[in-house]
Amino acid sequence: MLFREETRSGPLCSAHMLTHFFPGPSQRLGWAARTSAGAETEALANRYAGLTTSSIKARKDGAGGDLPSPKGRPSSQHIAAQRRQDRKPPARLWPGQHRREGQLASLAARACDQREYFRPHQYLAYEADTPQVVYRIEEGWACRFRLLSDGRRQITALFLPGDYCEPQWAFGAGPAQQIMTLTKVRTLNCPVSAGTSSEQRRALLDALVTALERQTAWLVTLGRRTAMERIAHLLCEIYERMDNSGLTYSQQCAMPLTQMDIADIAGLTPVHVNRTLQTMRATGLIELQARWLRIPDLKALRQAASLP
């Protein structure tokens, strides 16, 4: 069951969503009541899709019930719990359960004090810009990409919650490629001058080394792995990065990438990506639905990606 439909320009509300979520007597409600209920369900679907990661963290801390499985649908208890959560202050996003994430968050809080909000498909940087700040992604997803003259796109990096975008800007480098948001994004802006302090410089260097290691893994993937291995490797990486930021729950995490996005990351066609995902679903490697990824057996998926 899909909450929303995806297009290249953005998400569209499914026309049959109201009657699907509110069967029986609610179908006999007036048009205004059904519209209000549908808007509430759509807002809840957006929260489950990873656009409000604070609500996910709050549920992990015991503020609400379990998140639904990808095949389930929001119950009345979930909606009531979400209403209660909306009345509470936002939960702390960075619990510091991993040493590196905790250090980066602490340093960012001391050196960066300006937050900024971006819409989906809004540019954070253009090629050859002179950056004034280094973005730390607090919420949402963004990507770096190269667009060829014939319109083909290659995504060369993903920026998930907790990532710096881009750490090398603090050391005098400028954007080599365009950077665009994939969802709604909230950033913590660190002035480029913040890189002059020793603590912040160490944090940015640590983030830069991590990014280089990730790029090396992507190079091996694009050069030698099969289509199945490429997509399995990408899903493993996304899940583990989200887990490091404390944004996974019951072997699930947000997955707002479209099949076109996956194709542009893995260097495949959208048709090939669709067939590969169908095979992975059929073999039980993943459950991918309603903009959520569930991995029943992470070890099996790592084996499918030829990871140790």
Describe what this molecule looks like in 3D.
The strands form four sheets. A four-stranded antiparallel beta sheet has the order 3-10-5-8. The chain has a four-stranded antiparallel beta sheet with strand order 4-9-6-7. The chain is of the alpha+beta class and 308 residues long. It folds into three domains: 4-86, no CATH class; 93-219, Jelly Rolls (Sandwich); 225-308, Winged helix-like DNA-binding domain superfamily/Winged helix DNA-binding domain (Arc Repressor Mutant, subunit A, Orthogonal Bundle), CATH 1.10.10. Residues 1-53, 58-73 and 82-102 have low confidence and may be disordered. Helix 7 (227-244) packs across helix 10 (298-304) and helix 8 (259-266) crosses helix 9 (270-282). 43% of the residues lie in helices and 19% in strands. It is built from ten helices and 13 strands.
Tell me the layout of helices and strands.
Layout: E1 4-7, E2 10-13, H1 17-21, H2 31-51, H3 53-60, H4 76-86, H5 99-111, E3 114-118, E4 123-125, E5 133-139, E6 142-147, E7 153-159, E8 164-165, E9 178-181, E10 185-191, H6 198-224, H7 227-244, E11 252-254, H8 259-266, H9 270-282, E12 287-289, E13 292-294, H10 298-304
Antiparallel strand pairs: 1-2, 3-10, 4-9, 5-8, 5-10, 6-7, 6-9, 11-13, 12-13
Helix pairs in contact: 5-6, 7-10, 8-9
